[in-house]
Amino acid sequence: MKLLLFGLMAIGLNAVAAAKPNLLIIYTDDQGYGDVSAYRQVDVRTPNIDRIAEDGMQFMNMRANCTVCSPSRAALLTGCYPDRVGVPGVIRTKPENSWGYFDPSVPTLADELKKCGYHTAIIGKWHLGLESPNTPNERGFDLFHGFLGDMMDDYYTHQRQGHNYMRLNQKEINPEGHATDIFTGWAVDYFKDRKDKVQPFFLYLAYNAPHFPIQPPDEWVDKIRNREKGIDEKRLKNVAFVEHLDYGIGKVLDALEESGLAKNTIIAFASDNGGCLRVSQNNDPWRDGKQSHYDGGIRVPFMMRWPGVIKPGSRCDYNGLNFDLFSTFIEAGGGEVAAGLDAVSLMPLLKGQKMDSGRELYFVRREGGNAYGGKSYQALIYDGWKLMQNDPFSPLELYNLKADPYEKANLITKEKKRRNALMGKMRAHIQRGGATPWQQPAP
Q1: Could you say which architecture CATH assigns to the domain 12-350?
Q2: Pairing mode, strands 265-271 and 302-305
Q3: Is residue 44 left, alpha or beta, with left meaning phi > 0 and alpha meaning psi from -120 to 50?
Q4: Which has the least CB within 10 A, 98, 176, 265, 378?
Q5: Cα gap 343→300, rounded to integer Å
Q6: Is-above-0.90 flag for pTM?
Q7: For the chain, give me the number of helices (H) and strands (E)?
Q8: Is-contact 208 152, C-beta < 8 A?
Q9: Burial, 122: exposed, middle or buried (Cβ in 10 Å; 0-12, 13-18, 19+)?
Q10: What confidence tens digit (pLDDT) does each residue in 234-274 have?
């Protein structure tokens, strides 16, 4: 009788686990809005990324949480604005030029999903700390197979300033090959490993590409040169780099299908910020690019697929932020979304319902060098208006995004009432962020 009872309990637990969807975030690095062909069909072709939208929902007005890497990633993994978790700027390998410290007391998405019974994994780029207590295994991930640092100086040697930051959990490793191919292969292996597991998984697949150096394999350069006659050389290499990345994402999607996991997996795709203009990345039709609070620096490709829930081929105009995936995935995984988070769940939209998009969207970046002086600069969007700076020493600018989506007419001197109202809201955000230290405490 006891054996029968235990058997029934095991079956019940397995049924509950199996009912929970697997969760996958594919996060690219510096991939602009105009470098996904679902958004802009000119020279770049991304059929595999596009099929996430074709099989699911394409979001037209989503923004990254910051104009650069670390703050966007900190926000994505906590559901909080980045300065509220200690990461207003880029965490770098040299302390004197590092502008954030990821608050170890804040639970991550991996922490929360582990409570819901998930196996949690990150493959690819971490960029939220090089040492304890801020390594991935200490921040909720059961498996880390990837790169701790900010960027690679070479996609084949994987070095950064002479250091190797490639890891399997805590172990230093030296894999061979192009980093994009390596991360793709590890993701494919992960799905093979999870194929017969009852426990649901959360995989955060964070590619380094297409972050500079723009280093596509030679065969991809030749392919684009033959196809796009007369294309500028810098642009040619970026298109090849993005299409090589898209090919890898296609292999990931195929492996998910072949493993039989795709039907019960929610896939989200996004980029951490806009593309870098100096290496010929494209953010059209939006103004400017990476590091800028104009929309070219923060408006990003964003799409989700959930078979049986999201209507294929859907489009959504909701104004949200990448970190809304935090609340969405916790809700999808059966967890309880904590009160006080800045992120909101997109679940109503995924089910074809409407959501109020009249929320405040806040952006902050702190940076060093003479151009920034270690100071922060902010932007805020509310009710169709944007108040912003692009460095701490320039005057504030104000744009009516409904009438002027490409941010050509600065109305800061003409709309004083609107300016003052938004400045009050911005000050409140700055005060909240100021409560969290952003440098590592002294030993």
Answers
A1: 3-Layer(aba) Sandwich (3.40)
A2: antiparallel
A3: beta
A4: 176
A5: 17
A6: yes
A7: 11, 18
A8: yes
A9: buried
A10: 999 999 999 999 999 999 999 999 999 999 999 999 999 99
